[in-house]
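Many introductory courses stop at the sequence. We go one step further.
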Amino acid sequence: MTDMTTEATGAATGGVRTLLRLEGLVLFVGMTVLYYKWEGSWLVYVLLFLVPDLSFAAYLISPRVGAIAYNAAHTYLAPVALMTLGFAGEGPLVLSIAMIWLAHIGIDRALGYGLKYSRGFGYTHLGRIGKAQEPA
């Protein structure tokens, strides 16, 4: 049976949702291990790990602006581009920032925090989160 609310939001369900969350876990673990092998500063890791979540502040303006800001900070586009630039220019700090950023996105996905819809913070591509959460 198809849940019309889930269908209307485009949220992943079932095995697809599980795969997306597992991808996030693998990304988090992989980037953290890579950072360890890279011998990056753990102080820098801790200080920068939650920086993408500053995008939450945009929800104070409106759900639409919040979703745009959150999604901009939580897609792979910018950190992968940054990582590519870091490799091309041999920039260790740039590479470190990219790895930390990707690790953050990975753990968010693993925990079920998907990209947001403008309907509200709780509406994500991985399903509903928060008080009005739908069954998985």
